[in-house]
Amino acid sequence: MKSIFTSLIQSDFATNGHGNFEAVIKVGNDLLHYFRDNSNNAQQWRFGLTVCKGNVAFPGAIIQSDFRSGDHGNYEVLVPLWMPALQHVQLWHFFLDNSDLANRWAKARFPVTDDGDVVTGPASFIQSDFQNDGHGSLDAVNKQREFVIVDAA
Hints:
The protein is mostly beta strands. The protein has strands at residues 3-15, 18-27, 30-36, 46-52, 61-64, 75-83, 88-96, 106-107, 124-132, 135-141, 146-150. The protein has a four-stranded antiparallel β-sheet with strand order 1-2-3-4, with no helix packed on it.
């Protein structure tokens, strides 16, 4: 089974001043979260949680945002999902509330892209400095066009 990796961040989960590495990896038709504790060079990558099971068409993109309900920002992931009813791929937003390690990944209620938008590959994902109510806008770029996921402006 081939794994595809394209997205890596360093998070604010830190021990001895070194933040963990966080990655989302496409394995088969699933998107999985892995992390590495960087406080010790002997540490290995460990499985976190399944972000999305099934219908993952292309690699995902992960960021850690300033949305938080505890000490750590949420993880935000863009996932290109094959939508059988539409017969093409759409971008979907998943997030993980890091205030409690028992929390699971949650899927947004609506896709990022419209039904007529055809996603042809992975997207890039940032949180910009355009702010409103203290949060930056979550922005994505795909081969087709730019999308605003959460517009804070």
